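Task: encode each sequence below as structure tokens.

Item 1
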Amino acid sequence: MGTSSKRPMCPSCSKPTRICLCNRFKTPILDNSVAVTILQHILEKDHPLNSTRIAVLGLKNLGVEWVSDVNFQAHFDIRVFREEGEGKDGVFIDESSGKSVNFSIGKHGLISSFNREMVLVNGKENVGFDGFVDSRFMVDAFEKGFVVKKVHEREFDGESVNVESEMEVPAGSVLLFPSEKAVGPEEIDFEVRNLIVLDGTWAKAKRMYKENPWLKSLPHLKLDLDKLSLYGEVRNQPRAGYLSTIESIVYALKALGENSEGLDGMLDVFASMVGDQRRCKDERLSMAD
């Protein structure tokens, strides 16, 4: 009988135990005042260079939500929290009050249906999704927080099944994404309480943004940086300023006034992880010679 060739893995950082990241942190876990929510593409989860694992180990107030491509259809329902209710266990305003909106998208993020009843823009009923993004409903949702429920079709073993997920978006959330409506940290005129970050290749991030249209309703934050990613030689970046997820989080939190020491420590761990990958790459090349 053959023996298993699987390498022992660290259950915390999901790296092989010989290059475990857990003991590389020089400072305690950072109790970040601005929470971080990472929307991670499902195919990014097990990538050896995925940097979300460092954020998970280094930040106390952090959540990770997995996102998969919409290849058929997805249905979204948005519910606003009551002022006295917070979190998934809070009290929701019921649909009859007009504080729930639902819509469906097809492949490539195209809106196929939209329940626009009770959604008002400047006192008039809105007639499309783009107007809904700027509606009083979403202003209310931003101020109080909301929950996004998503049901989408996926194919398993040749059969189509519905997959359901639910995500809480706290009051004061911003999306780190360089859209046309994005502004720099110095232009934000409210207290940022939660930073939402898309984790995936640039192509995957753009697709997640398109296939989750509710993201467009959030204030958008951009970072005008000329920095080259520490990924360097081991993973392609489209151009300067396109950073890894952990680098993006660190620089955004710094810009929002978070403690620098603990954040810099996470970049040190990331640099060491990239160094591991570079050495592995060099070893493979030398063995091939």
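Item 2
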Amino acid sequence: MDKNTLIELVPHYIGMLILVFGILGIVQLSVGQVGFFVEFAIVVTIAVAYRPLVLRLGIAPSTWE
């Protein structure tokens, strides 16, 4: 991978991490402590859904198109 591709992807990976921690925080505030497998399922769901959502919104990096 070249440097420009990595620079283009970094904001999306940071955004995905912020989204994961934000949703996990909201879940813990509203429901309370949840188990490891529930948190894992939330993280996997966000990771799988992020790319198609970003593509549909039209803000995906060129390497994902």
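Check on item 2: Residues 3-59 form one domain. Residues 24 and 59 are 24 Å apart (CA to CA).
End of task.
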